[in-house]
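Escalation from tier 1.

The customer reports that the assembly of two entities below gives different structure tokens on two consecutive runs. Tier 1 could not reproduce it. I'm attaching the input and our single run for tier 2 to review.
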Amino acid sequence: MADLSPDGIGGAADAPLLGDATVLDAAPTLGEMREYRRDAALPWYGGLPAVAAGTLLGTAVILAATALVARAAGPGDLPLVARLALLLAPLSWSALLLGGFAWWLRWRLRDVRLWRFARANGLGFVHRSASGARDWRIARTGLGFPKHLINTEHAALSGDGIVLARNRPAAKPGGGAQLRRPFAFAQVDLPREVPHIVLRNRRSRVLALAGLGLGNRVVLGLEGDFDRHFTLLCPAGYERDALEIFTPDVMAALIDVAGGCEVELVDDRLLLYFPVGLPLWRTETMDRVQAAAALLRDRFGRQTRGYRDERVSLPRRTPAAGGIALQGRRTTSGTGVPAAAAVATAAVLLLSAVVTVLSVLVLPGS
Amino acid sequence: MEIVTQFFDWFWDPANAVIRWIIIGVLVLVLLFIVISVIAKFAPLAHHKDHPVDTREANLLALGFQQILNSGELWNDPAASTLSESQKRELARMWGLSSARDVVDNVERLTTERRRRALWQQLLALRARAAEANGGRRPSERQWIAAIKEAGGTGKGEERDFVRAVMYYENEFGKKLFPANEPVVSFDGYALGQAVAVPVWGVGMGLISQADSMRLIEHVNGIARSEFESWAAFGRSYALGRVMHWSDGTMDEKQARRGADAVTAMQHALDGKRRGPWGLLPWRI
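Tier 1 run:
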């Protein structure tokens, strides 16, 4: 879980950024589950009764089929292995089905709480939507949202200049296997555009497989304790600009409230990446995330308000091209770690280990 | 020759009656399909009979042709009178339309922000610069990337993906409507085309009056007519803008097919023989 310490957060904002989180406390009712399904425009088979009935029916079918097979075969005549298989196969399949249902229900109940929070505070809520090939409206920019993947957002809450959601990147059909971790994130609007800056967390690698390339970015050493928590990456030539934004009070705020996150500034957005299990559906976590986002918005807002990229010299007639020169807009990034490459690397490592063990333990004696 | 007579003997043999009727049925279906396709290709474009197609109002509405056609409406109907209840619900959900204010806000957003992304704007401006250096012709991928690198970019990652996607979609859409001497350097047509459709839907949904809707449409037209040179230039911007936004700036075969609808609509609109409004009405008003 992200380390969202409440220390130092107080006073950043009087009112919570999104709203009163105590509405998250109560357990969801059946009525709310029903209303959630309707509100999210889910089909009838996406509701609790249908999923529960489907699970029970599936389990019943498995057990009935096992009973029929056992009766037809006559268990007394079967060898021990076959009898064991006849016992374990239906049990494991049933456990898988019931476990899947429990997993589904667990997340649905959490999402219903978040939906209730959104409704109570007049926020936008989207049950599930995919960017990229499916829906550009939620297409986001940042290392966590590579464009060659489909980024599916779950339980997205949107308020005034802030979005909170879970994101699950997945390969496009025919796009090859890619290892990407799901994560939760907060996106906060900044008053103006800034160079692309990434803070990689030394202890908690939420975007561990994001695949930052060697392109145009440089690693910038910062003073004090900061380097023990984060590695700051910025485009080459923007070191001074990064220092202008990352003043000691901004760094202190980051260590205080975002010690467990990875952070990215891109265009006019601040992105905080959390582990996917961050329990936003709990009052205290929601309060902390809101307070952290408010504090960082305040600090970064103050620092970036006056920021100006001196390198901007755009061609004529370039409306809305923004205030950042092309060289500062993106650090070039890689495309993640192909699953095949990861498997191959693991296989090579395993093989070398086996060879080493054999050569040490077996060969000397032979 | 013998094989033909043998085939006819076999075909008319009473023992092959079932196969004969199946073959005849298939041939009739194919013929019917060809006839319908030919008629559809040359048939005049559908329009609402109660509304004119040659007035100034029709000219203003024609700017939203691709978007309005995409939602299944008739392009010259200022009240979107054929919207079904489910379409209204869907539009309300997608666009957040529940009051007159929502209609105005959407039009304002579409005419000011125009779905622009700062990075894309920079890359398009560099394409315009590279085209200028190329005598007005569309720069090659190499030339465009070189212009990006010269401007300080890396020409890698998102920048390269964007360049490749634009060129891929232009090639997919064909040289006839996307000629090399008129490269697309703005995607604004997409947002502006939508900004015409939104007030029309607003009337159909009972949110604003037709007079208010036409005032908004007039405003959108004022912007579009001054920023684009022709119907074709606007249509190209709309089609490419749409496919780039939906694909999030990446090459995507599915999106190319989807974007092709807007190109087909543009082709029809430009065809004066089929009473396509863009082929008959003047761009300058």
